[in-house]
Amino acid sequence: MRVQDGWLEGVVRCPSAHCNARPDGEVSLLVIHNISLPPGQFGGGYVQSFFRGQLDPAAHPYFAEIAALRVSAHFLIERSGAITQFVSCDERAWHAGASRHGGRENCNDFSIGIELEGTDELPYTEHQYGALLALTQALQQGYPAITNSRITGHEFIAPGRKTDPGAAFKWHRYLAALTTPKGT
After folding, report:
1. Which of the residues 87, 92, 147, 155 has the least number of beta carbons within 10 Å of its own beta carbon?
2. Distance (Å, rounded) from C-alpha 49 to C-alpha 179?
3. Catalytic amino acids?
């Protein structure tokens, strides 16, 4: 798995118009999120439709509240571990909103956003952790400023406003796997 011209090779591409050009500066932060549509339900392709601005507000009562929002992430990792990319890593996806990391505002300007299909409370799947590990390693190769210390959750860059990826996400497990040499 590797990034070529901002796109991850070997994954589904589902381009979103919910993005724009980044300001000058290197990509130096990875933000982990979660999402499920409708809330607490998985599958159905609603997240993909939402990130592309094609969510049918009549398909579920909750969708009427969010259908007009213009948001996206660079990647979605489904419960099965399947990865979809919506925005080139060289462009600014609209995933973090009002945010701050290391004294810098507007994390969308310098970050890559990964959405895990899930909720704050339900355990993420083995497939998701495996896909997230492989994706993170590929991103770190393509964007060396994303060190392990520059990986964070939405909850930490938008405290009081966001809670994801939540208590169900095993940070220790994920970060320990990143520091373990491959093949051990």
Report:
1. 147
2. 35
3. 115
